Every structure is written in C-alpha cells, then in structure tokens.
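Handoff note, outgoing to incoming analyst
You'll be picking up this chain. Sequence as last confirmed:
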Amino acid sequence: MSLQVNNLNYAVPGKMLLKNMSVAVNQAKVIGIIGPNGAGKSTLLKCLTALLPSPGCIQLNGQPLAAFSPLALAKIRAALPQESPLNFPFPAAAVVGMSFALSRISLAQQEQLIDACLSMVAAQHLALRNFLSLSGGEKQRVHIARVLAQLLQHEPSEAMRFLCLDEPTAPLDLKHQHQLFSQLQQLTTQNISSLVVIHDINLAASYCDEIWVINHGRLVCQDVPQRAISQRLMKTVFEVDIEVSLSGQQQRPIIHKPINQPISTQP
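Most recent structure output, in case you need it:
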C-alpha cells in the first residue's frame, strides 16, 4: 500500500479542520480533491506532504512520514501550494533548476531535465524569459515544471511517488488546463500519483481516476467520478441544486445549469 491515512485529525485554536480522515491509494492514479471553500482540502494536502504535523497517521510506501529525512521525502513527493511567491528576476529555466538543491545529478542532466519539464507544460519557449515578466498562467506552468523536475530527477523505483498540487489550474487557460491533466495521466505510467485540489468539477470528472469529496473536514466520498459526482452530492455538499448527466464514451459526469431552473444568487 503506497499511501495510507488512518484517522487523521488536525485542529487550530477554536476549530477542527480535519476529522477522523482515513483514505488509501494503492496504485498510481490521478485523484481530484473537491469540496466547498474551507472544507479542509488544502489542510489535507499539507498534512500529506508533511508541511503540517500528522503524528503516526500517514504512511508513504509503508513508512510513517516522520521516518523520512528531507532528502528522502523530496525523492517521493513534490508539492505546489496555491501561491508560490518569487520576486527575483531569474530566467524561467533557473526557477525550474531550484528543484536540484538537494540533487547529485550532473549539470548536463539538469539542463536536459529542465528542458524536458518545461516541454511537458508547454513552456519550453519561456526558458530564458525573466520570470517576473511572465503572466500569471506562464509563471504557474514554470512552477509546475519545477515540481515535476523534483520528482523526475530521481530514478524510477517500485515505490510510488506523489505529486501534490493545490488548485494548479486556477491561473491556467483552457488549453493549458487540459494539457496539464493529460500530462498527469501520462505520469501514472511512471508510478506517479497526482493529488489535485480543484474547483472545476467538470475538469476533475473528465480526467481523474478517482474523486475525494471533503466537507466540514470529513472525507464523505472516495470513488470513481461516475459514482462520486451526482446531483445529490451537489446539493448536499455544495448546496447547489444542479443537474448532473453522463457524457462521452467513458460516460463521465458533467454538471450544468438545469433548464428553466435558474440558480439563486441569494446567500
């Protein structure tokens, strides 16, 4: 079992953010983590990446998070938070190269990997551009290339690796949103699972192998999109009475506004 979470709880003064959460990942897949604002999605991702403490509750590849050194953990998980502020006028390629801080690969290998990871996010042409001159979406693609390089610089092994992305598509246009998820699907062939916090439910339903639904700090569903995303879930979790239908050869769910039933703008 590659990722095991057992009865994870996390609290801040006055509020329990995660409550008795248990979940497992047994094979490489793309996982969409959805839920309302403040449900605990980002908190869960921070616990899974050891940015927040989770004593004994989380194991990666059979070992508790606390057993990993920073270098060992960097080899099997990479994380991209919602915001990645960087205020230095580095070339975009140098930003990707920040992932090699703990690396022992040669400079030639680093250059090859930087080029490959920028290509994976359609940002190869940005390599020599001043990072500060890039648009928000371009900066995001460079940051995604950076965390990809962190994982891909290490030789593949039987141990699963994890890419944890918190709302990565928010700054991206439609084309690059779909390119990113297509790339995440391809990474599963290298035994890399992607855990993606996302608000675009249709995008998650189109590409994810599995959906985790979080509400009020609890995992209320862990299932394939066809079963996880339903009209009932939209109403009970998101408090929106909206139609859900199945579309395409894979019969993926899609949400859309019901005919002749406008959505109320009242709080």
